[in-house]
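Submission checklist for the structure archive. All mandatory fields must be present; incomplete records are returned to the submitter.

[x] Identifier: MOSC domain-containing protein
[x] Organism: Arsenicicoccus cauae
[x] Residue count: 278
[x] Sequence attached
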Amino acid sequence: MTHVTDLAYYPLKSAGGVPVREAVVEHWSIRHDRRWMLLEDDGRMVSAREAPTLLLLRAEHRAHDGALLVRHTAGAVPPLAVPVPDQGEHRDGVVWGAAVRGREAAREASAWFEDYLGRTGLHLVWCDDPTYRLVDQQYAEPGDTVTFSDGFPLLLTSTPSLRRLQEWVDESTDRRGEARVQLTMDRFRPSVVVDGGEPLAEQGWERVRIGEMTFRMSKHCGRCVMTTYDTTSLGRTKEPLQTLAERNAIDGRLVFGVNLVPEGTGTLRVGDEVTPIP
């Protein structure tokens, strides 16, 4: 039986995730997922693609007041607590060509990130309206929305697929006479991890039932440079992108995992059964 083994949400775009045993799914994401992000003065998003030390931050949602809590995994900087901004200016931005809008947090919070990243002109914003941004209509239905994720409400990966990818990477690095690279699932930043079934089976799904909920598989997830970083050391190699280019490129994308759009709202739980819907 294919079943859910891990669930996570990522309050701050590009920071580490929060593992949970159950997760409330709203129309636009797992609750609290990617509701915060950093923007530059001109509205461009700030992500770990160009600021990889964001991967060393862990952000959490404080339940009693909704505040964002940010800490460094090694304690290299003092922790930060950011109240949800309930007034103040909105700031417009762009995530992969899509217009986004967030309410700007207190200046002190943005300054904390400027000091940490060694940059100026940064703005921490909160997604106060998760219905503002439509999912790419090429892969969605009218009315599907998303928060500050790269493009879709949820991302699902599978343990058998990771094992297969690791086998491929080992073969490739051995062939090239290079040191082996150990892949961990957190490189891929999934919302849902499942186990059971055949490797890469999820790539053939059109719809899937997970526990009490159903989802549409809207798009294979094309992977980027973020997957080449060890999330603990920030050491970087060519893998897994080099091997994905050789072994699992689909429609010009280097694929690992699938993007899901929920067909309603509900709760996912570790242990939920996963059943593809023909």
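[x] Structure attached
Curator remark: Residues 34-126 form one domain. The mean pLDDT is 97.
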